[in-house]
């Protein structure tokens, strides 16, 4: 047996019997505490629940007998896991059965056979050690979970909630490594922003941008969009990744119209202060490669593909309050969207002209 | 009330006890000393309880004496103590009890000398 075998509590009203058990347990390498009856035993257990590894409990005792002591132990959250070996005379076997039903680990009959005692003690201590390891493991896990939760909260301050969640999810590594998927990309920016940035005080600029970003942020979250980045007045959002969204085109269009609606009163207020700002959006659907983009030390979760370029170009072509939808996107939500064609647009970087439509309303 | 044929001291119990502690004879000798000290008190408490006609006061010393006696091999004494314990539990302190207490005292004296003999035999 190893050095740290464990600590046993021997509960028996007879000093002679306690002496015998104590001597036998010491022979097995255990440290032994003694109690004369159940009341004393419970006091010792409750005072140092973590110090005692096994209890040897006499069934018949004055004051509080083994049965009642066991019952009290099992009702006490702090000590219920400690193994209890009932010690009984041969004529008390009926009580032993009751005790086992109540949760006693095992039993011994007097006179106690040293080899049976050793076997019972070893089994009980092994069970106790397993329990302690489990408890330790659960505590570690609890701490780990708390750390991860805290990190998630911190991350969600910097990242889109979907990305923050993705990073700590089981499929996170796989998705971050890069995958292809059909997404809808919405690119939004402000008409007249460059002029405004030149003319306005920095404080004014930040206050207007702050108000705009707050509104955008709320609407993005409402529609479940994944924010890729803010760049001054430009905001790129995509749908259907990392969370799958069957209605990704519809979501993007509903988001854009909600933004346009909420932008109006803001633009009117700014206009009174002398700033002419308009809101434009480009929306396109297509396949992109998504995942971790960047370099060691600074990675973003991003989307790469023609679809992002197209959405960005459509956005720059959009006039104030226009939401330009690529032809393919229109085709996917025809039945719910009311559009006006804006004809064929020459897009920088694309060889062929692209036809697009302005969203008037969504049903 | 007890088997008159059984011996005052069942030496095989002491032998097994001795074996169970790795043949530590000194331990067994000390244990018998502890038994004789505690047992003497318990016999007195039994006598007092019987004299006072107090069954409740009888239970505890009779119970402990029973189980200690069984451990050291004083099996006849253990059986007598057991009878008294049960009488106490059932609230029976009838006319028979004083004679039982007297019989217990006689058995105690016999067990005491038998245990001392066992100790001195081993020492020899």
How would you describe the overall organization of this protein?
The complex is a heterodimer of chains A (363) and B (124). Chain A has 363 residues and is an alpha/beta fold. Chain A is built from twelve helices and 13 strands. Chain A has helices at residues 15-27, 38-47, 66-74, 93-102, 114-158, 161-167, 172-177, 193-199, 202-223, 248-272, 306-317, 327-332, and strands at residues 7-11, 31-35, 54-58, 84-88, 106-109, 179-191, 226-231, 234-239, 278-295, 298-304, 322-326, 337-345, 354-362. In chain A, strands 6, 7, 8, 9, 10, 11, 12 and 13 form an eight-stranded mixed sheet that branches. In chain A, strands 2-1-3-4-5 form a five-stranded parallel sheet, sandwiched between helices. In chain A, a hairpin with a 2-residue loop joins strand 7 (226-231) and strand 8. In chain A, helix 2 (38-47) runs parallel beside helix 3, helix 3 runs parallel beside helix 4 and helix 5 (114-158) runs antiparallel to helix 6 (161-167). The termini of chain A are far apart. Chain B is 80% helix and 0% strand. The mean pLDDT of chain B is 88. Chain B has helices at residues 11-20, 25-52, 55-72, 75-89, 96-123. Chain B is elongated and about 45 Å long. Chain B is an all-alpha fold and 124 residues long. In chain B, 40% of the residues are buried. The A-B interface holds A 12-17, 19-20, 23-24, 27, 58, 60-62, 89, 110-114, 117 and B 13, 16-17, 19-22, 24, 27, 30-31, 34-35, 38, 59-60, 63-64, 67-68, 70-72.
């Amino acid at each position: 047996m190893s050095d740290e075998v464990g600590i046993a509590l021997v509960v028996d009203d007879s000093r002679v019997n306690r002496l015998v058990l104590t001597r036998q347990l010491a022979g097995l390498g255990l440290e032994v505490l003694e109690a004369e009856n159940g009341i004393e035993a419970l006091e010792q257990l409750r005072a140092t629940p973590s110090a005692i590894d096994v209890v040897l409990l006499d069934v018949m005792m004055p004051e509080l007998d083994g049965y009642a002591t066991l019952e009290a132990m099992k009702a006490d959250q702090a000590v219920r896991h400690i193994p209890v070996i009932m010690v009984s005379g041969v004529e008390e076997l009926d009580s032993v059965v009751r005790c086992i039903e109540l949760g006693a680990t095992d039993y011994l009959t007097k006179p106690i056979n040293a080899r049976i005692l050793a076997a019972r003690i070893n089994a009980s201590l092994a069970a106790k050690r397993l329990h302690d390891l489990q408890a330790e493991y659960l505590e570690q896990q609890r701490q780990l979970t708390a750390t991860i939760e805290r990190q998630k909260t911190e991350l969600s301050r910097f990242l889109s909630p979907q990305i923050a969640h993705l990073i700590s999810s089981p499929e996170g590594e796989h998705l971050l490594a890069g995958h292809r998927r059909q997404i809808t990309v919405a690119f939004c920016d402000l008409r007249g922003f460059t002029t405004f940035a030149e003319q306005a005080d920095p404080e004014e600029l930040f206050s207007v941008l702050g108000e705009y970003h707050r509104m955008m942020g709320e609407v993005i979250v409402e529609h479940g969009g994944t924010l890729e980045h803010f760049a001054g007045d430009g905001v790129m959002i995509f749908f259907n990744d990392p969370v799958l969204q069957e209605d990704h085109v519809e979501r993007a269009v509903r988001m854009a119209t909600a933004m346009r609606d909420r932008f109006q009163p803001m633009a009117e207020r700014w206009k009174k202060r002398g700033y002419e700002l308009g809101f434009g959006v480009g929306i396109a659907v297509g396949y992109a490669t998504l995942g971790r983009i960047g370099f060691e030390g600074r990675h973003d979760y991003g989307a790469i593909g023609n679809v992002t370029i197209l959405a960005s170009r459509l956005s720059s072509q959009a006039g104030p309050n226009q939401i330009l939808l690529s032809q393919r996107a229109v085709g996917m939500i025809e039945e719910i969207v009311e559009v006006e064609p804006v004809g064929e647009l020459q897009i920088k970087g694309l060889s062929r002209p692209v036809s697009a439509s302005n969203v008037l309303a969504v049903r | 009330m007890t088997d008159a044929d059984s011996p005052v001291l069942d030496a095989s119990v002491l032998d097994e006890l001795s074996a169970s502690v790795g043949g530590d004879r000194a331990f067994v000798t000390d244990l018998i000393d502890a038994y004789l000290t505690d047992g003497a008190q318990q016999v007195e408490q039994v006598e007092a309880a019987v004299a006072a006609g107090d069954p409740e006061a009888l239970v505890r010393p009779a119970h402990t004496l029973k189980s200690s006696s069984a451990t050291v091999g004083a099996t006849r004494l253990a059986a007598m103590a057991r009878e008294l314990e049960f009488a106490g539990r059932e609230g029976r302190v009838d006319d028979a009890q004083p004679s039982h207490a007297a019989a217990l005292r006689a058995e105690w004296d016999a067990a005491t000398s038998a245990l001392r003999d066992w100790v001195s035999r081993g020492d020899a």
